[in-house]
Design goal:
rod-shaped
């Protein structure tokens, strides 16, 4: 039992003396205080598990330093490999922006009253029937028909002005 307590005491003294200098060295290697402390801590845990063998080395600090450097290098390689995998064979997709017609329709929709806009979107974009729109909005079918009729008239007036202007821009 005495040797176990002495062994723990020796490791504690070793840890107290070696941790900070090793963490400083690894900081200079990794550029990160947290990373340096992590790898030195992991190396110290491995030394503790094998303390009866590591303590017999001529320079136990050298053993822990080598383990910590190897851990830092392995982490760096894993991180670099992860970045390679993320960027490898990545398709660069370019989605063209909306055309002038689509922009004109979107702008025209914003000028409609909320219920008319909702009815147009549900009917023409979501393909809902007038009866389904009535259920969604809680309005009568006749009211939904009225909203759609008014919205179509308003959109026709606005778009007949906007689309010729967009066509002129395309010709220039």
């Amino acid at each position: 039992m005495e040797t176990t307590v002495a062994g723990h005491r020796d490791f504690a003294e070793f840890y107290a003396a070696a941790f900070h200098p090793l963490a400083t060295q690894l900081y200079l290697h990794t550029g990160s205080t947290a990373e340096a402390q992590d790898v030195v801590q992991e190396a110290m845990c491995r030394a503790y598990d094998r303390w009866s063998v590591v303590a017999e080395h001529d320079d136990p600090v050298a053993w822990v330093r080598r383990v910590a450097w190897n851990l830092a290098t392995s982490r760096w390689r894993r991180m670099r490999r992860g970045i390679e995998l993320l960027t490898r064979d990545r398709l660069v997709e370019s989605t063209p922006g909306p055309g002038p017609d689509r922009i004109a329709v979107a702008v025209a929709l914003t000028t409609l009253p909320a219920r008319q806009r909702q009815a147009v979107i549900l009917h023409y974009l979501e393909d809902l029937s007038i009866a389904e729109i009535a259920v969604v909005t809680g309005a009568a079918e006749g009211t939904v028909k009225s909203w759609l009729h008014r919205a179509r008239n308003a959109l026709a007036a606005q778009l007949s002005e906007a689309i010729p202007a967009a066509e002129e821009v395309d010709r220039v």
